[in-house]
Amino acid sequence: MNGGSRRRPTSFDVAERAGVSQPTVSRALSGSPAIAEATRRKVIEAAEALGYFVDERAARLRRGSTGTLAVVVICREGDSASSINPFAYALLGSVCVAASERGFETLVSFQAREADFFGHYQEQGRADGLVVIGTTTNAAAWEHFRGLESEGRKVAYWGSPFDELDWVRSDNRAAGKLAVEHLLAAGYRRPCFLGALNTPQVQFTERYEGYAEAMRAAGLEPCLAPTVNAPTREEEGRRAARRLIERGEGIDAVFAACDAMALGAIEAFAAADIAVPQQVGVMGFDDLVAGRFSRPPLTTIAPDPAEAGAALVEAVLDEGEAARRRVPVSLIVRGSTAR
Amino acid sequence: MNGGSRRRPTSFDVAERAGVSQPTVSRALSGSPAIAEATRRKVIEAAEALGYFVDERAARLRRGSTGTLAVVVICREGDSASSINPFAYALLGSVCVAASERGFETLVSFQAREADFFGHYQEQGRADGLVVIGTTTNAAAWEHFRGLESEGRKVAYWGSPFDELDWVRSDNRAAGKLAVEHLLAAGYRRPCFLGALNTPQVQFTERYEGYAEAMRAAGLEPCLAPTVNAPTREEEGRRAARRLIERGEGIDAVFAACDAMALGAIEAFAAADIAVPQQVGVMGFDDLVAGRFSRPPLTTIAPDPAEAGAALVEAVLDEGEAARRRVPVSLIVRGSTAR
DNA sequence: AATTTTTCTGCTAACGTTCACAATCCGCGC
DNA sequence: GCGCGGATTGTGAACGTTAGCAGAAAAATT
């Protein structure tokens, strides 16, 4: 109809059409209770006729809020975007969805260096809260986040190594327990944990704890195949498995702290002509797509990105107690533990 | 220092401290040429001392811009965030990075139904442009995007099936050519294309075209192993490979339109006791992480998410000619084609 | 030395909302 | 018949910035 490049309608336009004052439009549309039902209907009708929508920039400026959630995905410097753990992406996705369901926009940034995102977030203060995905080992991070929180901003951390912060994690102890129970039920007798403890990756430690507890509950001695630093997680798994083979301790199953390590371990066993799953059962944690395609397909414990994202958003937006939530995990049985 | 919950400093505070008027602060910081260097220095100094940063909400409100790029990732309804193609996530990441390098924020949303994101974007008009990731078959999309563009908003599409829109794609023809050249150089004689043509997935068709051209250039007849709809791409690959085996046409290599299909094909060959890569070479396109872990590891053509993201942002933000860009791809040789 | 030009800066008014407060209207009890 | 509380609505200001215009100072020109 209106052929020209029409300007966006404002609340004044709506007010005029509805025959009320401009602030009344604002009240009517924001659901204020101090508005007569008839007026509200009139206003809504006029707004729809004009295709009016609140200009969030202005609303937030006036309100003093931002309506925005900052999400920072930490990646190692030089990492290409594609080398980020697929789970982090899935988590990012569900954080965006959960935020949008609560009317928040998501300001996503991928930051290699922590200094960058400190700057990005702190200095510009454009968000009402911050979700951090990825583990940082930087101790200064702790200080920084405390600082943000004392300014009234909330920060929620996926898998924080700092217990003072609000974090959300997978229920890693339950994962360890699930793994042991599954391996024993599948007929394995000496499942061994493959991974490093006492690293910033608390999740690994927690998985070990769950594993160890379940082992003791079954009357078995926990066993640890420690990994050491290597360029990639697969390589760490490969090396740890190789060492395990050399020592030959009668291990008949491996629960790796993450799928990438598990896949590396499978490769090492294959190279040593040890049959998986017949001679050694292998399982991991993460439910990487890669596990579906490995030979044999990898049994794994799957985290729940949807639930985790929702919990993170909740932790940031909802006032109240420190939110330390554990998200349930589930067992996915595939060929690598089918004795 | 200032123990209490200090308010964010405004340009007035800076003006006062620097002994100039408030608009001068704005000019000095935004790099206006009509400002004496000495004044600018004074202002910058005061701003730094106070930790001042422009409130983008207000700036944009006044300026009439949004400083925001909307990014929509299309996913099938009911899809969990984790079932989205990993490449889409990598692309999302690099779009965010590229936008941020140009001073734009990214408003990310994951939308199952197209209607949702039409609404989300159009009605609220909160972004200066839109990047759409994912292929939609909805014809109404075309209309909609044309509409947005006529309103002065730019839209760039990753892999659009509609040629009228600004799109960015991998150089799929080059990919087909690379694949054929590699397979022939590796000693295979009858490489066959595995995938469906005439679908909304133009990228598949383009890969076939490149393949066919290179085949003819080498004096060979192109050959097509058509796939049909199946719940997953792997399954499509599996079925197509099975049909290929049954017909036994003397094919000795397969170039699948995507890695997922290639992985499915490898499974089918393994199930039929056909050795990959000895009897049949298999390669794909996408460089999925899963391909690194498959048995044998998958040779593939890798798209370049970083480059693609930058190109998409450029297409949206830079005025001028319709931007139809092809992003170079690269060959990654692994075990599945090592005769 | 007077005038013009240039360079810089200040004043004022937006941008489109929401909030605090005052004003109006209604019915009702006295 | 008058005043009074509750329910609605209007008025005015504010959020923090940028842009247009005009004025003042400095530099260049006559």
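Chain A has 13 helices and twelve strands.
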